[in-house]
Design brief:
The complex is a heterodimer of chains A (about 280) and B (about 290). Chain A is of the alpha/beta class. Chain A is built from ten helices and five strands, in the order H-H-H-E-H-H-E-H-E-H-H-E-H-E-H. Chain B is built from eleven helices and twelve strands. Classes of the chains: A alpha/beta (about 280), B alpha/beta (about 290). The structure holds thiamine diphosphate and magnesium ion.
Chain lengths: ~280, ~290
Amino acid sequence: MVEVSEELIAGLKKKAVTLRKHIIRMTHNAQSGHPGGSMSACDIVTALYFHVLRVDPTNPTWPDRDRFVLSKGHACPVWYAALAERGFFPVEELMTFRKLNSRLQGHPELGTTPGVENAAGAEGQGLSFSVGLALAARMDHKAWRTYCVLGDGEQDVGQTWEAAMAASKYGLDSLTAFIDRNGIQQEGRTEDIMPLEPLAEKWEAFNWHVLTIDGHDFRQIFAAIEEAHRTRGRPTAVIARTVKGKGVSFMENKIKYHGAATSDDELKLALAELEAMEAAI
Amino acid sequence: MVVVGADTTESIKTLDFGKAFPDRLIQLGIAEPNMISVAAGLAAAGKIPFAATYSVFGSAHTYNVIRQNVAYTNLNVKIFCSHAGLTVGPDGATHQINEDIALMRGIPRMTVLVPADGPETAKCVDAAAAMKGPVYCRFSRTNVPTVTSSEDGFAIGKARVVRDGFDLTLIGCGIMVARCLEAAQLLEREKISARVINLSTVKPLDLATIDRAARETGGIVTAEEHTVVHGIGAAVASAIASNHPVPIAMVGVQDVFGESGEAEELLRKYGLTAEKIVEAAHDVVKRRDR
Ligand SMILES: Cc1ncc(C[n+]2csc(CCOP(=O)(O)OP(=O)(O)O)c2C)c(N)n1
Ligand SMILES: [Mg+2]
């Protein structure tokens, strides 16, 4: 992997602010959608799309591309924002999100949106889908890698653990799972709704290589990815400690913004905060 | 009575039950197959469990668990699900289940309810709790006009004639009952007298009321916020085919997935309107009089 320079980090930080502004605008414009989990995953998605993934916006179905799978499909605003900024489709199209006849569905649809790699909406299917991708890459002797982003609420879903077992059975070391550990699911804190801890030990018990990082620190994200690349014979689970709603003070750690858009007043406040953040980089 | 939930208790309001009876709301997280089997265990030990979440997760997502652990075992589990059909809106196709009636009415022993509005949903809860055996009840997230009254009689297995008429019959369920009534008014202007039936029990089907409608009015239009594949249209068609066949037309989702959009926009785009029911009525009358 390339040297992680100060300039690179600053550029990525700016890009992440741009994505967060898109997320806020898209969900505000739709007056629905899921800003909280989009913002918590934003730095991971930024790191992947703007420094790690080998993808070609002019050829979204290039067979040798790396695969990005968003298992927690409700967080698709961050995915659409990244794809648009990466050139897969025009940035202006983001404002059609959740509208009738749009290519940007409320939950991702495979085949409709350039760059989208999986359909999601019902939680808990993405890691299994990623296992299928990684198995296919191995059969075809391909070097591309699969990155899957899961929610921590998705750790409730039994299928997540069915996939975890399958991935370690087949020693899928080209598969890296990021668990967006923001501590909140739809209607409460994970530890109240369905306690997950000790979570790292669970993944270890399923024979994964497990790392715990700060999911808003680009250097830690890159270090985790490098370690995943070096790890042979086992898939890697990166438990990324994050803040739901990260980047807008009044949205951070608030259960409400799992599935609520900002009001007109809140939109102005949120954008002002993000712009100040951008200026400070 | 106990309620089991899956990280959606606030949005579908079963949380209110939990506030009144904190130790009788069981929160199981995002784990619907587990939720259904836990409900089955509760029922086997004598409780009356209501398993409640969004329809896509309380039906398709858990289909075989319901089949084996609830219906095959004939347990007293009541599955009550909101967010059915297209009117889920902007969340899009993954959350718009238009196949749950088809799935649930195919399972032996299952009672399937589709209330037309708020008052009737309340009656479904009471009636389901009072009967023994598995029940699936689906309703919509969107606001619906009230078309029934709390004084109206209600019984599982009984379809209700909500407007009398003689030229043909419109049979609707759920949010489409209001649209059938609207269509009947439009037809009245053209001197076509339409009977309207609220088919709030899809299974067991009220064969007597449907047969009478076929015999007395000679044509049927069904309307459902659901695919026409194995929905109430198919149920009514097979019922009249084996008794008194008359022309029938089905208004519903035409074997396609939905998409993101506002509820009303989607109903228009996918042809679930009073105007489409009127068109279907014309078609039925034309075929009958040919
Ligand atoms: C199978 C299933 N059940 C219920 C839902 C409704 N739902 C949507 S998002 C969500 C909570 C997700 O929490 P988490 O995975 O932690 O997402 P994040 O915090 O990253 O937004 C729920 C329950 C769903 N999408 N899928
Ligand atoms: Mg979460």
